[in-house]
């Protein structure tokens, strides 16, 4: 028997006997014989643990990992304290099911309640759900929510969301009959005048991202006025929670929905997943939001206890009337982000944001000073990511950086013909002055 | 589980405490006002906790002890496949060669990661009998959505998307099936189940006849949500195909049939796996899951971008797929979950996976036989990996399935799935999985039988259960009425 299965052959026989079956095959007689799979699956024989770890370690070794990372574009190399993994690996958290039995899931539901609280405070909103798959799908869900809530089928999204997020919105929402209108950028930020012209009494809302895909902090005050120029239309802001230690919360600008990617809260890059989406709203929308929500209550003895609530919104109750089909979310990643926010706390989150921003600006100035890179969007405020136009070929520059174990910026020309030979560089608190100077030295030399 | 710990992190907080350390800023510091217009800067505090590192460790350790995980005991949750999550998988997904990879690194620098994805695609495709499997979907429901989008794209290519608006869903289906069909922009045509949970073929014929040319497809779980193999499976898939629809297989119950029968060979065109069920990746208290979607050869062109392809000895991310349904989520799926599933598939191999399904089915049949004396068994025939009871037989004292479930908590068990499927009254859905021993099952059976006796001799103890858990029965009505969703203290 395989090592993950406890039954011995003797026990198997015992079980069969008590059922009154002669063989295992008797238990599969209900499968028509012409359908039965004959022979062995062509996936190889089972490996011992030693063979298994050797094989997977070899695959891991084929990657160039642990690079000095100056790439962002939606995934960031932030510091992740050791404590997170130790707690997340406690079996009580990671082998537990969705907390449908609250009496034996108070650990999970309490952590969700803490997450809901921290994210709501960061975003300046009243309510946050227990998580979405990632920032892109959370944005797509927010679009569906806005259309459902306003009974309108058009949405205006800023090009500043970046191509991938817009594509996910289109894949998820066009099938619901929603028309997605992309508002153009001007100097890297959402073009206010052009966006105004796209709004109207048939538009459900405006979606912007700040800091946007190009790292620029948008003028949320002005954009809010555009979004709300029609009374019913909604203002949806996608944001990076790690910026909110120093940047004003979208809720303070009057956002109706705040979404985003919380991978920046201590979650490893891990080749793109699993990450952590979030969705925050004000109380008046709580019955419209997708996903799980935990509420406070009391138990039979009157003690405080937490429980999943408002489940009537969800797929397992509403079935074909649910606004979203999300069921499994990102429970364990949510827990990791909650632990991160606890560890970093009030001061830590501020410091991460401050250091990222200071170091990004240092790198920006050093690179511009070489004379070989021009700011793509001069004078625009940015947080930890910025776009430059290079004299030399960006692809060549990145190949050269790689030789020194440095992962250079994102090559904008790949996805944005209009920004050909542009590079988008991200700098987090993890990067040292020495690493930045080395980056500048190599980039200048080409 | 320990005595009742009842704090939230904010109640551990003390102003000025720190739980983090960062190197000193080593670049010249500029004033914030130089970097950012003041109206974009936050004024005042966020309201995050201020705690020491040890405060955090102790708080979350204490919280964890209020939980119940698979490692400590039996978790017979029907439809959820709460099997053992092998420890080595956790080591594998945490290898530095994976965790530090940026998803947009040049393909030449992530050959190992791409090879792993390609190989997992090949193996999942072989296990289910399909041509290719996309690894992008984030969860089972996300996989369902992906699959229905593929079906939509197929009809669109044939110029029939406008007319084919209906997805057939049995009334015994998981809630995600109808809701996925709805959010994917389809209408639902419900087909009746027989008493044994199988599809009523006459009802299916009727639904098809009522919707000429309008059937886009059928979503089916097989074995059904009652844990029974669909006896008319080929007739069903043929009927749908003849009506011009495609057949979608909900792989929630894949644990019953690996190496025994393949969805692709039963006439299915598209399916999703739940890696957090069948392939043993941990449930994590509600995620992350992963819901890869397998398709037959002529549907591969519709899979979401990017697709990992092999060109000679190189692995590439192929974005140039004009007929693709597009991108479903950021980047390449839940890579860390994929590594765990890959480790599991390799550790088992063809021989191991077959044993998995054989033992899962044997265990379920054994438990069903042992429990039918004191519990109603609506359908008494060979089951697959799970079975559904209809509550206790003797209901003279008014004891419900909910009471039984809450009483099980007192004995240190996670209860089965209750009140699902909807077609069975007082349903209790039990799935032991292959990783449980005879002793574990026997103990659980003894406890369930004891509870059935208590229901008659001492019904009060069931109605007031649980007593031995960190908290008693929670007032769910109050939570929904008062709506306290964030910490107000």
From TrEMBL, chain A:
Question: If you read the UniProt record, what top EC class would you report for this enzyme, in one word?
Answer: oxidoreductase
**Which branch of life, at top level?**
Bacteria
**Reaction equation(s) it catalyzes:** N(6)-[(R)-lipoyl]-L-lysyl-[glycine-cleavage complex H protein] + glycine + H(+) = N(6)-[(R)-S(8)-aminomethyldihydrolipoyl]-L-lysyl-[glycine-cleavage complex H protein] + CO2
Q: Does the keyword Lyase apply?
A: no
The record's annotation in Pfam families points to: GDC-P
GO MF term set? glycine dehydrogenase (decarboxylating) activity
Record keyword rRNA-binding present: no
- EC number annotated for this UniProt entry: 1.4.4.2
Classification via NCBIfam families: PRK00451.1
Q: How does the record describe its quaternary structure? A: The glycine cleavage system is composed of four proteins: P, T, L and H. In this organism, the P 'protein' is a heterodimer of two subunits.
Name of the protein:
Probable glycine dehydrogenase (decarboxylating) subunit 1
TrEMBL record, chain B:
EC number(s): the record gives: 1.4.4.2
Q: Which cofactor does it need?
A: pyridoxal 5'-phosphate
CDD domains, per database record: GDC-P
Which reaction(s) does the protein catalyse, per the Swiss-Prot or TrEMBL entry?
N(6)-[(R)-lipoyl]-L-lysyl-[glycine-cleavage complex H protein] + glycine + H(+) = N(6)-[(R)-S(8)-aminomethyldihydrolipoyl]-L-lysyl-[glycine-cleavage complex H protein] + CO2
- List residues of the Aminotransferase class V domain: 153-284
Q: Which domain of life is it from?
A: Bacteria
Any one GO molecular function term: glycine dehydrogenase (decarboxylating) activity
Q: What class of enzyme is it?
A: oxidoreductase
Keyword Protease annotated:
no
**InterPro entries reported for this sequence:** Aminotrans_V_dom, GcvPB, GDC-P_C, GDC_P, PyrdxlP-dep_Trfase, PyrdxlP-dep_Trfase_major, PyrdxlP-dep_Trfase_small
Its subunit composition reads:
The glycine cleavage system is composed of four proteins: P, T, L and H. In this organism, the P 'protein' is a heterodimer of two subunits.
- Protein name, please? Probable glycine dehydrogenase (decarboxylating) subunit 2
Q: Which organism is it from?
A: Andreesenia angusta
The taxonomic lineage of its organism, from the top, reads: Bacteria, Bacillati, Bacillota, Tissierellia, Tissierellales
Q: Which gene encodes it?
A: gcvPB
């Amino acid at each position: 028997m395989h090592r993950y299965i406890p039954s011995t052959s003797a026990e198997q026989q015992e079980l069969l006997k008590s059922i009154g079956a002669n063989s295992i095959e008797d238990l599969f007689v209900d499968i028509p014989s012409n359908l039965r799979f004959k022979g062995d699956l062509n996936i190889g024989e089972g490996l011992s643990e030693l063979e298994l770890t050797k094989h997977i370690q070899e695959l891991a070794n084929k990657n160039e990992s642990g690079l000095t990372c100056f790439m962002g574009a939606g995934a960031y190399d932030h510091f992740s304290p050791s404590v997170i993994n130790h707690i997340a690996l406690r079996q009580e958290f990671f082998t537990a099911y969705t907390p449908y039995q609250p009496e034996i899931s108070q650990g999970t539901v309490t952590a969700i309640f803490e997450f809901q609280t921290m994210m709501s405070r960061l975003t300046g909103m009243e309510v946050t759900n227990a998580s979405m798959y990632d920032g892109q799908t959370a944005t797509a869900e927010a679009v569906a929510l806005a259309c459902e809530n306003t009974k309108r089928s058009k949405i205006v999204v800023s090009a500043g969301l970046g191509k991938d997020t817009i594509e996910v919105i289109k894949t998820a929402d066009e099938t619901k009959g929603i028309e997605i209108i992309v508002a153009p950028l001007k100097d890297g930020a959402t073009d206010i005048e052009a966006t105004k012209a796209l709004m109207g009494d048939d538009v459900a809302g405006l979606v912007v991202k700040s800091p946007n895909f190009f790292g620029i902090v948008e003028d949320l005050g002005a954009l809010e006025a555009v979004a709300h120029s029609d009374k019913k239309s909604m203002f949806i802001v996608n944001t990076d929670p790690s910026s909110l230690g120093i940047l004003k919360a979208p809720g303070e600008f009057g956002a109706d929905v705040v979404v985003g990617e919380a991978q920046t809260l201590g979650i490893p890059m891990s080749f793109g997943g699993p990450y952590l989406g979030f969705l925050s709203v004000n109380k008046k929308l709580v019955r419209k939001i997708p996903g799980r929500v935990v509420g406070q209550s009391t138990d039979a003895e009157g003690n405080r206890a937490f429980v999943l609530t408002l489940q009537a919104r969800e797929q397992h109750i509403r079935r074909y009337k649910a606004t979203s089909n999300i069921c499994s979310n990102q429970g364990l990643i949510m827990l990791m982000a909650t632990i991160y926010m606890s560890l970093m706390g009030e001061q830590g989150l501020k410091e991460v944001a401050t250091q990222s921003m200071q170091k990004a600006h240092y790198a920006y100035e050093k690179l511009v000073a070489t004379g070989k890179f021009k700011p793509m969007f001069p004078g625009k405020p940015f947080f930890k990511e910025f776009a430059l136009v290079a004299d030399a070929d960006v692809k060549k520059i990145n190949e050269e950086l790689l030789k020194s174990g440095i992962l250079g910026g994102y090559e904008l020309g790949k996805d944005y013909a209009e920004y050909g030979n542009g590079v988008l560089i991200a700098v987090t608190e993890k990067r040292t002055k020495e690493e930045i100077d080395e980056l500048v030295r190599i980039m200048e030399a080409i | 589980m320990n005595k009742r710990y009842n704090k939230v992190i904010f109640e551990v907080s003390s102003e000025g405490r720190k739980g983090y350390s960062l190197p000193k800023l080593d670049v010249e510091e500029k004033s914030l006002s130089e970097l950012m217009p003041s109206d974009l800067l936050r004024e005042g505090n966020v309201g995050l906790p201020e705690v020491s590192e040890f405060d955090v460790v102790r708080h979350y350790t204490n919280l964890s002890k209020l939980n119940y995980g698979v490692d400590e005991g039996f978790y017979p949750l029907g439809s959820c496949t709460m099997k053992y999550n092998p420890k080595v998988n956790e080591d594998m997904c945490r290898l530095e060669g994976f965790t530090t990879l940026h998803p947009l690194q040049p393909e030449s620098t992530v050959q190992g990661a791409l090879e792993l994805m390609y190989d997992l695609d090949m193996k999942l495709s072989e296990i289910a009998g399909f041509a290719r499997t996309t690894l992008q979907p984030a969860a089972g429901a996300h996989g369902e959505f992906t699959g229905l989008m593929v079906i939509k794209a197929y009809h669109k290519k044939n110029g029939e998307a406008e007319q084919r608006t209906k997805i057939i869903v049995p009334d015994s289906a998981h809630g995600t099936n109808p809701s996925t069909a709805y959010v994917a922009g389809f209408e639902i045509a419900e087909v009746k189940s027989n008493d044994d949970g199988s599809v009523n073929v006459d009802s299916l014929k009727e639904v098809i006849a009522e919707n000429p040319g309008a059937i886009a497809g059928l979503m089916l779980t097989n074995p059904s949500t009652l844990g029974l193999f669909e006896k008319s499976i080929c007739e069903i898939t043929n009927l749908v195909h003849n009506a011009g629809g495609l057949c979608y297989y909900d792989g929630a119950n894949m644990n019953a049939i690996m190496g025994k029968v393949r969805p692709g060979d039963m006439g299915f065109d598209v399916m999703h796996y739940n890696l957090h069920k069948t392939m043993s990746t941990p449930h994590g208290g509600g995620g992350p899951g992963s819901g890869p979607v397998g398709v037959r050869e002529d549907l591969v062109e519709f899979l979401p971008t990017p697709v990992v392809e092999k060109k000679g000895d190189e692995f590439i991310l192929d974005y140039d797929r004009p007929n693709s349904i597009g991108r479903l989520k950021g980047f390449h799926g839940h890579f860390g979950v994929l590594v765990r599933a890959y480790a599991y598939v390799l550790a088992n191999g063809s021989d191991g996976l077959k044993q998995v399904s054989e033992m899962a089915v044997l265990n379920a049949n054994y438990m069903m036989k042992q429990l039918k004396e004191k519990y109603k068994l609506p359908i008494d025939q060979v089951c697959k990996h799970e079975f559904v009871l209809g509550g206790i037989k003797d209901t003279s004292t008014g004891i419900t399935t909910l009471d039984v479930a809450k009483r099980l908590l007192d004995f240190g068990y996670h209860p089965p799935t209750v009140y699902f499927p909807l077609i069975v009254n007082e349903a209790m859905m039990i799935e032991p999985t292959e990783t449980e021993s005879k002793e574990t099952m026997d103990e659980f059976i003894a406890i369930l039988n004891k509870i059935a006796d208590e229901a008659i001799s001492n019904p009060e103890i069931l109605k007031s259960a649980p007593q031995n858990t960190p908290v008693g029965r929670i007032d769910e009505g109050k939570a929904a009425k008062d709506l306290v969703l964030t910490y107000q203290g």
